Amino acid sequence: MQRGMEPFPHVRVAGGPRERGRAYGEQARERIGISISAYEEVFLAYAGWDWAQVRREAERYRAPIAAFDPRYIEEMLGIAEGAGVDLEDVLSINVRTEVMFAAKARAAAAASARQGECSAFAVLPEMSTNGHTLLGQNWDWLLHCFDTVVVLEAEQDEGPNYVSVVEAGLLAKTGMNSSGLGVTTNALVTQDDRGEPGIPYHVVLRAFMDCETISDALAVAQRGFRSSSANYLLAHRDGIAVNLETTPGDFSRIFLLFPEDGVLLHTNHYRSVAFDRKDVSRWVMPDSPFRLERMKSELSAAGGKLSLDLFRTLLADHANYPSGVCCHPDRRLDPHDQGATVASVLMDLDARRAWVSDGHPCTAPYRELDLGGILAKPSPVREGMPA
Fold first, then answer.
1. CB of 153 within 8 A of CB of 371?
2. CA angle 343–346–350, rounded 5-degree value
3. Cα-based distances in Å from 238 to 348, 351, 382
4. Residues 261, 267, 269, 274: is their CA dihedral positive or negative?
5. For residues 82 and 24, is the Cβ–Cβ distance under 8 A?
6. Are 324 and 332 in contact (CB under 8 A)?
7. Could you tell me if 339 and 323 are in contact, meaning their C-beta atoms sit under 8 angstroms apart?
8. Whole-model pTM?
9. Which of 30, 187, 47 has the alpha carbon at shortest distance from 110?
């Protein structure tokens, strides 16, 4: 199969949560079906769980999600209606990270699973060539995602509009909203990832899209019990960036990192000196430290201020192939364990512009997303802001 030859489909939705979800499901019906079928195979291979068992496990997360924000359950109900599947199917793919490491399946999953290997960056205005806040990442995951990724563009009746590059049927992933907040993410794993029901990883990502400010985003991450470890690298057009390294738990299990010399980089291992658990991430993703150091060294060698053109080159880097910044399948592994860079995303938060590489950035040229002005929606919290 040729990777990155066809642009990811655009899904455009508007209205309230149920209405947006239904439109999403209708437009992405085929890809949602592929995603459900693919994860049915993944769970069987990783944990020996059939889909009925996965659905039962996923149902345990419904009440915590509803307590966190019932609108996200409404969105999933709409997606299920539009795609012609059950809510439990949509719920299952939205909690796939948590179910993979559920208590009964964790040992089997950890023995074989290679989590997503992602490389992310943020650049503050003082270090960018155009004086803007820049953000982006390579998103690496399982090979079936080449056939399931969509570009979701949402106009909300309430809250910011947003665009997200995401697996079909999931609520959100990497993206930016009309209030100037951008979101990238990296998988992390600790010994505390046991699938205890709470707020799932992809629901946290969706909640970030509703945030007006970067402190709103931190408040969201701190609200309630999160089910899984994850890294969130966030930036705002105000010229602020922060990295949240998290483990399952409440506000006390978030470790903050800030830019150094105007740049913030992250891959798939913990960097905070305050982190006090076992970093399973580095065990299942041993390439992570090398990707981080490669990014650091290449940026240092470039010298001076940084541009998105520089990151276009860096995100296509093949040092430590096949597990480089631009990740390719490792044919030595079982097919279910093979991953690759399925998409690369670049964002200029000040200009409200985004570019995506539909597959490997070494071969799939970045194309600018035509967002039709959806990110021009004014932020109500900035009304009356002094000049």
1. yes
2. 150
3. 12, 12, 11
4. positive
5. yes
6. no
7. no
8. 0.96
9. 47
Per-residue pLDDT of the chain (387 residues; tens, 9 = 90+): 345 468 999 999 999 999 999 999 999 999 999 999 999 999 888 778 999 999 999 999 999 999 999 999 999 999 999 999 999 999 999 999 998 766 445 555 555 555 567 999 999 999 999 999 999 999 999 999 999 999 999 999 999 999 999 999 999 999 999 999 999 999 999 999 988 999 999 999 999 999 999 999 999 999 999 999 999 999 999 999 999 999 999 999 999 999 999 999 999 999 999 999 999 989 889 999 999 999 999 999 999 999 999 999 999 999 999 999 999 999 999 888 899 999 999 999 999 999 999 999 999 999 999 998 999 999 999 887 887
- Ranges of H-type helices in the chain: 17-27, 29-47, 51-59, 62-68, 70-83, 87-94, 96-100, 106-112, 201-208, 214-222, 280-284, 288-302, 308-314
Map out the domains of the chain with their CATH numbers. Answer: 10-375 (3.60.60.10)
Backbone angles phi, psi at 220, to 5 degrees: -60, -45
- Partners of 266 in the β-ladder: 120
Cα distance between residue 144 and residue 326, in whole Å: 17
**Residue 232: left if φ>0, alpha if ψ -120 to 50, beta else—which one?**
beta
Residue 327 is given by DSSP the state B
Q: Is 227:201 a contact under the CB 8 Å cutoff?
A: yes
Rounded CA separation 231/268 (Å): 8
Structure tokens at 87: 């809510």
What span, in angstroms and rounded, lies between the C-alpha atoms of 35 and 20? 19
Q: What are phi and psi of 139, to 5 degrees?
A: -105, 115
Of 291, 335, 9, the closest CA to residue 143 belongs to: 335
Amino acid residing at 300: S
Sheet with 263-266, edge to edge strand ranges: 263-266, 119-123, 134-142, 339-348, 353-357, 366-368
Q: How far from 327 is each of 82, 117, 131, 162, 322, CA to CA, in Å?
A: 34, 8, 30, 27, 6
Residue 24 structure tokens: 């999403």
- Amino acid symbol at 344: S
